[in-house]
Amino acid sequence: MNVIGKLFGRSPFGPIANHMERCVASAENVPKMVDALLEGRLDELAALQRETAEIESQADAVKNDLRSHLPRKLFLPVDRRDLLELLDLQDTIADRAEDVGDLLVARTWVIPERLREPLRVLAASVTECAQRAGEVTGRLEQLEAAAFGGPEVARVEELIDVVNQLEDAADDAEAELNRLVFEEEEALGALGAIMWLRLTDTLGDVADYGKKSCNRLRLLIAR
């Protein structure tokens, strides 16, 4: 029996939550990888990068199996296309976490002292946003049991509001780190500054796609 056959039954929401768990697990490696880089534990960084890539591959396997086996007709108050869009947004969380790892191992980083703590703050911030987005997706089966109505919808919408606030905080952390990168441009060099900005943008996407997945779910349950 395929993965979806084991997890699925008549509802896709269990597998979608299962997929999100893997995406969140990828994001949870982000601050670990950043700490390993900052503390010079490069062998550990490489191991974490490989682990993150493996978790992302597991998420892809669930995503692809769900896409292949999701019925064309769902006896649910949601549209198949909406669920597939939600799945793609979730999946990008894992993709970007993997991208962070790839960037961190790809080069020797010049790390001015004043960038160290802001980088840690940004990594922690985007990960918290992804974790809380995972809590939202984890409520899908409860939403289904409540027929996408009643108090459960209000609880989920409150959680989504929290995710949006956390993404705003991640944006602020990214902007502050970018400001410092520009101030350190001479020490970093042109290429170094560009790579730092690419890193902060990729980190920001981990939170951004957590927010996007939640807002897509908000539209889904509002129908």
Briefly summarize what is shown.
By secondary structure, the protein is mostly helical. The chain has helices at 3-8, 13-38, 42-69, 80-106, 113-137, 140-145, 151-183, 185-188, 190-222.
How would you describe this protein?
- With 223 residues, the protein is mostly helical.
- It has one domain (3-222): Methane Monooxygenase Hydroxylase, Chain G, domain 1, CATH 1.20.58.220.
- It contains nine helices and no strands.
- It has helices at 3-8, 13-38, 42-69, 80-106, 113-137, 140-145, 151-183, 185-188, 190-222.
- Helix 3 (42-69) runs antiparallel to helix 4.
- The protein starts with a helix and ends with a helix.
- Mean pLDDT is 90; it is low at 1-9.
What is this structure's SSE topology?
Elements: H1 3-8, H2 13-38, H3 42-69, H4 80-106, H5 113-137, H6 140-145, H7 151-183, H8 185-188, H9 190-222
- How big is the Rg? 19 Å
The helix fraction, in percent, is over 70%
Q: What is the CATH topology?
A: Methane Monooxygenase Hydroxylase, Chain G, domain 1
CATH class identity: Mainly Alpha
Q: What's the rounded overall pLDDT mean?
A: 90
Query: How are helices and strands ordered from N to C?
Result: HHHHHHHHH
Number of helices: 9
Apparent shape:
elongated
- The number of domains: 1
Q: Write out the CATH superfamily name.
A: Phosphate transport system protein phou homolog 2, domain 2
Poorly predicted tracts of residues: 1-9
Largest sheet, in brief, is:
none
The N- and C-terminal alpha carbons lie at a distance of 33 Å
Structural class: mainly alpha
Fraction in beta strands: under 5%
CATH architecture: Up-down Bundle
Number of β-strand runs: 0
